[in-house]
Design goal:
The protein is of the alpha/beta class. It is built from 15 helices and 13 strands. It has helices spanning 19-34, 52-57, 72-86, 98-105, 122-129, 133-149, 158-163, 192-203, 233-246, 262-272, 287-293, 308-315, 347-358, 364-372, 378-389; strands at 6-12, 37-43, 62-64, 90-93, 113-118, 152-155, 176-178, 210-215, 250-255, 278-282, 296-299, 320-323, 337-340. It has a 7-stranded parallel beta sheet with strand order 3-2-1-4-5-6-7, with helices on both faces. Strands 10-9-8-11-12-13 form a 6-stranded parallel beta sheet, sandwiched between helices. Strand 4 (90-93), helix 4 and strand 5 (113-118) form a beta-alpha-beta unit.
Amino acid sequence: MSKKPIKVLHVIHALGMGGAETWLMEVLRLWSKSREVQMDFLVTSGERGVFDDEALALGAKIHYIPYGKRHLGSFAKRFRQILASERYDAIHHHQDYTSGWHFLLAGQHLPPVRVTHVHNPAYQIRNNYGITYGRKITAGIGKYLIEKFATHITGTSRQAVTEHGFDATRFQKIPRAALHCGFDTARFGGDPVAAKNSICMEFGWPEDVRILLFAGRTDLSADLGHPQNHKNSGFAVHLAIELAKRDPSIRMIMCGAPSEATVFLQSRIDQAGVVGRVIMVGVRKDIERFMLASDLLFFPSRGEGLGMVAVEAQAAGLPVLASSAVPRECMVMENMVSFLDVTEDPGPWLEAVEEILAAERPARKDCNLAVSKSAFEIEQSAKNLERIYRGEGLLG
């Protein structure tokens, strides 16, 4: 006898190009074929995202309900109406401590399964909430409400669960575990030669260049010590400039959403005389092509919930040089990921890049196979999700 399809509401900011949203779209694509789970979305920004049209075409409903101080009453009313009419089996909330507030606002319409899922690093949460005393209080109350209402607490890594304080005694009664985002590893098993040829043609580069890749949004600040410097894009630009000056064959591609600091970073590139060799391409949907074409993923983040780009890179056979702030759980193959502390001095990073570029690497197909057998493969990730939604518990 087949299992009854279950209905799940995912609460997100928007269906943008973030790691969580990309994962949810992969799951939706998979489940849209089997119809085992009906996935809908509540978008708390009230704004459309890059994946909205595809999500709707795959059968998902998207509820746009702005959330904030000015919209609190209208949000609560519409939220309860949706829960009452749709009768979801589970609510999966992807906005850390805010989930507790939303569980409270749901009232008697709260589904039997309530998942709080933390994706962002605790470092980022502390800085975002630490701007004002009021936000600290709001976060603390939200965390208390998670204790009262959540049935499961998950994180993109087990480290993220711990760093958010969910290993405290008061949360012991709630199942907690890592719930890794997944993806279709076959997407990263393409032809690296063809990918590099297309990239070189796109940017007018000779085919013998060596390509470094940075995948992540541009930070609000380019200063290493600034609290809004998360992805460390300023450090990436600094390193790229130094490497390009040392070696004329080096190129760096920076993929990710721009910010107000983008103009400042571009001016650094211009002044260093490496225009056309260090390029910022903005948001791209063909990240697998960039990874297949590249020689190294540079990942110097000051904090990550996990760092899915590092896992995707391994699936593409691309070595990763990451900061020590990136959870070790991203490492599927030990010989493909290296870690360094983020410091003001780029010396060790420059040396590490040169060593990695000179070293032999495993065959790409072997890398892809290893990731396909891990918890990051989309079918395994989806199975773990379904276990939670059906009340069968957490794995790990």
